[in-house]
Amino acid sequence: MYSSKITGLGFYVPDNVVTNDDLSKIMDTNDEWIQERTGIKERRWIPEGSDDTSAVMGAKAAKIAIERAGLTSKDIDFIVFATLSPDYFFPGCGIQIQEMLEMDTVGAIDIRNQCSGFVYALSTADQFIKTGMYKNILVIGAEFHSNGLDKTTQGRGVTVIFGDGAGAAVLTREEDTTKGILSTHLHSQGAYADKLIVESPSIRNWVPELMANPKDTSYFPEMDGKFVFKNAVVRFSEVINEGLEKNNLTVDDIDMLIPHQANLRISQFIQRKFGLSDDQVFNNIQKYGNTTAASIIIALTEAWEKGKVKDNNLVVLAAFGSGFTWGSVIIRW
Ligand code: COA
After folding, report:
1. What pLDDT is stored for residue 196 in this prediction?
2. 10-56 pLDDT, tens per residue?
3. For FRET with 204, which of 36, 42, 105, 163 sits at 20 to 30 Å CA-CA?
């Protein structure tokens, strides 16, 4: 068996900053409510007329990650792309990356696991590397939320949370199994699929049906925020503990926890529960909102760029989201 090591990181967010005050001009909300409930001050939304999409932003982040890994796109053996906002219903964004980065005809898959998407993507790539099938895998998380949100007061409970962006990592095969990804832990619970969902358009409720029924707004995300919150704090804790126990580690071994940026209050709850200091938990939801499959990889990249993730550190990634799905990744950096 081999080990997989993250050898390159990159992220891209659109320049267009949307503050809470900007939102209060288009819907009945305010900076105080949003900051108090979520910690979010601003997010990036792709502006009208921009060419950015999930795949385009993913390619921009990927170029940075590949360069930082000291590789070229020709060295990549496989692509794993996590998103809930793909450019097309089909085919997926992974194959677009193959084309955009002028790569060889390598395989590409899309992962559809919402806020846990990047954790699932990393775990998938890790299996291909550990078994020796591939050497360098490009793992991307990207979301173009803003075009699919209800920007009226009716959608305010969901819309204020989400932001656009992308992040990418290059995962590389290593011989030293004491370093790199130590383990990954994945879970799902479909009983709560309807607690955070975009129901349409779907094959069950396709565009002609939607157009025939103007009252049907099930193409906007629906969320039972309180229920999601309550489940998130429990599952985050469980899956972090599961990862630590699997590796005979304890909370004291954690150097850096990067939680999915769902809500600053969820991150703070987890931080308090595990007794971690501010230096041991990285959050950037204040600037980017919840970027779903991109959030962990954007946060990991920013933490690394700031020198907060160092050689030999124990880094824990943890996610929870729609599905429900949740998971963790334990990394010896
Ligand atoms: N601005 C102002 N008021 C708002 C608002 C907004 N953006 N959104 C909702 N409200 C109002 C509601 O209409 C409600 O008013 P009412 O009491 O008069 O009916 C009130 O604020 C409380 O709404 P509620 O939805 O109960 O708020 P909440 O305290 O549960 O907070 C969330 C909402 C979304 C911030 C919170 O539930 C949450 O963060 N949940 C987890 C979400 C999450 O992490 N999602 C990502 C999954 S990974």
Report:
1. 98
2. 999 999 999 999 999 999 999 999 999 999 999 999 999 999 999 99
3. 163
Q: Check if 263 has its Cβ closer than 6 Å to any atom of ligand 1.
A: yes
CA–CA separation, 280 vs 271, rounded Å?
8
Same domain for 8 and 77: yes
Domain extent for 282: 180-332
pLDDT of 1 higher than 90: no
Q: What is the pLDDT of residues 236-282, one digit of tens each?
A: 999 999 999 999 999 999 999 999 999 999 999 999 999 999 999 99
Q: Where among 153, 174, 195 does a domain terminate?
A: 174
**Ligand 1 atom showing the smallest separation from residue 265 Cα:** 39
Residue nearest to atom 21 of ligand 1 (CA): 157
| 143 and 193 together in one domain | no
State how many domains the chain has: 2
260 is catalytic: yes
Ligand 1 atom 46: residue of nearest CA: 262
Strands lying side by side in the sheet with 107-111: 3-12, 165-174, 136-143, 78-82, 107-111
CA of 27 to the centre of ligand 1 (A): 14
Parallel, antiparallel or unpaired: strands 136-143 and 78-82: parallel
Residue 268's pLDDT is what?
A: 97
Which CATH number goes with the domain that contains 245?
3.40.47.10
Rg (CA), the chain: 19
